[in-house]
C-alpha cells in the first residue's frame, strides 16, 4: 500500500511515520495533522469493511483485530514492545528514503519498499505475541472503535504513546 500511494501522498498510512517526518521538518504541521486525521478515518473505514466481510461470529472470535496486551505480559512490556517496534519501522523509513543516499546510490528509491517491508515483517514476528503488533496507531484506533469493547480500550494508549 505504501508503494502504491507514494506518488500521491508520499505513502503516508501510519501516524507514527508521519509524526516522525513532522519532527524532522519534512512535513508542515497542517499537512501532518491532515494526514493523521485521514489515516485514522481510513483505518475506521477499513475496520468496518473487515467486520462486514467477517460476520459477527468470526469477528468476535478474533476480537475485531483490536490490539491489546496479551495475558502474561505487563503494560510495561507492551509499551516497550511498541516503542522498539515503532522505532525500528520509523528508523528504517528514514534510512530507506534518505535524500542523501539517493545521490550516492541510484537504486535506493526503487528498492526502498523492500527494507521497509522487511522491517515490518520482523517487528510483527517479535511483537505479535505481546501486543498483536500495533506500530500503526491509526490501525489500532480503527479496530478499537469498530470492535468497541473494554478489551480494545484498556490498553489503547500504549499504541499511541509507543
Automatic annotation (TrEMBL):
The chain crosses the membrane at residues 32-50, 78-96, 108-130. It is a multi-pass membrane protein. This is Putative plasma membrane intrinsic protein family member 5. It comes from Eperua falcata. The keyword Transmembrane helix applies. It comes from the Eukaryota. Keywords: Membrane, Transmembrane, Transmembrane helix, Transport. One of its GO terms (cellular component) is membrane. Pfam families: MIP. CDD domains: MIP. It is found in: Membrane. GO terms for molecular function: channel activity.
Amino acid at each position: 500500500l505504501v508503494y502504491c500511494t507514494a506518488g500521491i501522498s508520499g505513502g503516508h498510512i501510519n501516524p507514527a511515520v508521519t509524526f516522525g517526518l513532522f519532527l524532522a521538518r519534512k512535513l508542515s504541521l497542517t499537512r501532518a495533522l491532515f494526514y493523521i486525521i485521514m489515516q485514522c478515518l481510513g483505518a475506521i473505514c477499513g475496520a468496518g469493511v473487515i467486520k462486514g466481510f467477517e460476520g459477527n461470529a468470526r469477528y468476535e472470535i478474533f476480537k475485531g483485530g483490536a490490539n491489546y496486551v496479551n495475558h502474561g505480559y505487563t503494560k510495561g512490556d507492551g509499551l516497550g514492545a511498541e516503542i522498539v517496534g515503532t522505532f525500528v519501522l520509523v528508523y528504517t523509513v528514514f534510512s530507506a528514503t534518505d535524500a542523501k543516499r539517493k545521490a550516492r546510490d541510484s537504486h535506493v528509491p526503487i528498492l526502498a519498499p523492500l527494507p521497509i517491508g522487511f522491517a515490518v515483517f520482523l517487528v510483527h514476528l517479535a511483537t505479535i505475541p505481546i501486543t498483536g503488533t500495533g506500530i500503526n496507531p491509526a490501525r489500532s484506533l480503527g479496530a478499537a472503535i469498530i470492535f468497541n469493547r473494554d478489551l480494545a480500550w484498556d490498553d489503547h494508549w500504549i499504541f499511541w504513546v509507543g
